[in-house]
Amino acid sequence: VKAVIGSHRAYYKLRVCQEAIWEAFRIFLDRVPNSEEYRAWVYTCQHENLCMDDLAHNFSSSQEHLDMVARVKQVEEAETEVEEIPSAEHEEGGEGESEEEVTKGKASSG
Length: 110
What we know:
Interphotoreceptor matrix proteoglycan 1a, rod-shaped, mainly alpha, IMPG, single chain, 6 helices
């Protein structure tokens, strides 16, 4: 009975580690791990008794994650700058006729 229970516990730990590592790569690094790094992380998870906080800390403080966050921040800042630039039609007076009205006026006068 002890051997069966031990086997179930080992299998449970393997499955939990596999899922946790897969999700950590997906969430913190936004990618699928290659086979070698996946096996290495699962092995570490199984044999070093890492808790979920340990995994989260390891992945979130990795250089790859920090670089990804910096890139995302740069893109968001660039998008914000573009949104703040007024469009050409607002700068040219904005209260005159709309483009549609101008087009209709040209068609009826021509």
